[in-house]
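Hi V.,

You were right to ask for the full record rather than a summary. Here it is.
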Amino acid sequence: MLGSCEYLPQELKECYSETCEIYPIDEDDVPDYIQTVDAHDHDFEIDGWGRWDMPTEDYYDTLQFPEDYTGYDGSEVWRFIHDRICFEGYEYDDDHWKADYNKAVSGLHSMISTQIIRGIKTRIESGEGFSDEEVWTDPEQEFRRRLSPDGETSLAIENLYFCYMLCLTAASKARDRLLGDCSTGKIDAETAAELKPILESSLLENPLVEVASQKLHDHAVKDFDSKGALWEARMRTRELCRIMNCVQCNKCRFHGKIGTMGFSTAMQILVGNFGEGGDTFRVHRVELAALMTTLHKFARAVETCQEYLK
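Predicted structure:
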């Protein structure tokens, strides 16, 4: 959480709201087995899909600090992502995995936009109000601007569904690993009871959901050059994880890191090193947790979009 920004010259800016801040939970509230597992489950893979912070004594609770509207403007970071991390020169429907990658990253951006919109609405309903510095105060206006077909990104919702489908398929492929961890106690009983119904959902078996991952796979393995260039996707996804250190709102950074790690885990499972997918039993606990948390974020984002499209 304390990593410095390595990509953009920045002046330290205070977030407009005290809700930007998050704090670690008490050390006594962290189960001993989690600390033990994390202390040993941190292998470094130089050409892996993701990067995450090494284990420390600090643990943060996503329920205590859920995603929220803080007034922070992350447009500079997103501009860097779309202009420098995504692949240039590829149109939306190009027959190439690089176009699919750009679409998925755009979907990740759409998911975070829905968090902001939902947070604005919650702020209004709570009667909390807005400060003079906060310029986004109308959820319907922000939905039209950020996500609607007539907004700044006309395909934002389609991209949202595309990335959601990738995460769903990745979760489906990781199901045996997750259920095994539930059975052996690597996942505690309370969490396992909540996780199992999700893993048994018919949505994970729906062939229509697999269309996105199948398209990505077919593009990734269609020829020698496509396979040979997949290292670029791994490199850029690692940079996507690192750029979150440039987010100057701690709560936004926290959830941004979870979302990008969830995305990187989905890509690791679906694509792997050579386009045929990765071994889910080699995926780290932290990565799987990020994947399932990100899947929940996408599910809520879809609900939000459906609400505003009625």
